[in-house]
Amino acid sequence: MLFHGSADGGIEELLPRRTSYEINDEAGRGNRGAVYATHDGCFAMWFAVVDRVRLRGSIRSIVEDFTAADGSPLPVYSFSVDYRELPKQLWRDGWLYLLGRGTFERLPFVPGGPPSPEWCSTQAVRPLARIAVRPADFPFLAQVGGHDDGDLLRFDELADVVRNHAVGAWPTERGVVLRVTWADELADIAEEYLRLAHKWLPEVRREFRRDADGVTWLHMDASDTSPDMAVMVRNSYQDLIDAT
């Protein structure tokens, strides 16, 4: 069996798509358009009970498999959120979905390296069962660590400013293009926004362009080698696309 953690208790079918972004995905395993799961129930439970809607910044999590002196398996875990978020109520009730392994492949930590705890399927997967879990069920709740996401949180703030000035969005083959209302507030943060965007999402090229009619457009184009990233970019602005 494999496990998939979620806040949604009504999933009938898991679809192969990616809605979140894994930062510094040097191994190339984290930003695929796929269904993700793991053989480790505690690792999956983290994604079920951490409230990613209210949480600001990134989450960091990993489990590495070692062997104890007596030969028994010894998994070693690490879970972390931005240190500013630790005093807040970060937790929610969630669900663990049980999945068959048939369409999944186990991903290596790095290409050609040892196996990681992550598995993925490029096909849709129907859960076999689900288990309700609460934050108190997560055994490492009191041991979650903190890291510094200062620049990333600043980028999120600037991205909200850009979105607030968007008056339309159109999907493109490699991402999305936004029509924005240019104003002093946007002009003041545009350079910093582009710099931080390149730092945190280097696979997506962003550029403000002004056409002959004086209309300003923000082009977001994923690299040719990141087709799944293009889908993620479009999905993140789907509400604007639908309203245009």
Task: Walk me through what this model shows.
By secondary structure, the chain is of the alpha+beta class. The relative contact order is 0.17. The chain has two domains: 2-147, no CATH class; 150-243, Gyrase A, domain 2, CATH 3.30.1360. It contains five helices and 13 strands. The longest helix is centred in the last third of the chain and has 17 residues, at 184-200. The strands form four sheets. A four-stranded antiparallel beta sheet has the order 10-11-13-12. A three-stranded antiparallel beta sheet has the order 1-5-8. A three-stranded antiparallel beta sheet has the order 2-7-6. Helix 2 (150-164) crosses helix 3. Strand 6 (105-108) and strand 7 (115-121) form a beta hairpin.
Offer a few descriptive terms:
single chain; about 240 residues; Gyrase A, domain 2; four-stranded antiparallel beta sheet; three-stranded antiparallel beta sheet; 5 helices; 13 strands
Brief account:
With 244 residues, the protein is of the alpha+beta class. It has 5 helices and 13 strands.
> How much helicity do the residues have?
10-25%
Low-confidence stretches: none
How much is the average pLDDT?
A: 90
In terms of structural class, how would the helical and strand content be classed? Answer: alpha+beta
Net shape: globular
Largest sheet, spatial ordering of strands = 10-11-13-12
Q: In angstroms, what separates the terminal alpha carbons?
A: 43 Å
The value of Rg in angstroms is 20 Å
Beta-strand percentage? 25-35%
Largest sheet: 4 strands, antiparallel
List the total number of helices: 5
The tally of domains stands at 2
In total, the number of strands is 13
In N-to-C order, the SSE pattern is: EEHEEEEEEEHEEHEEHH
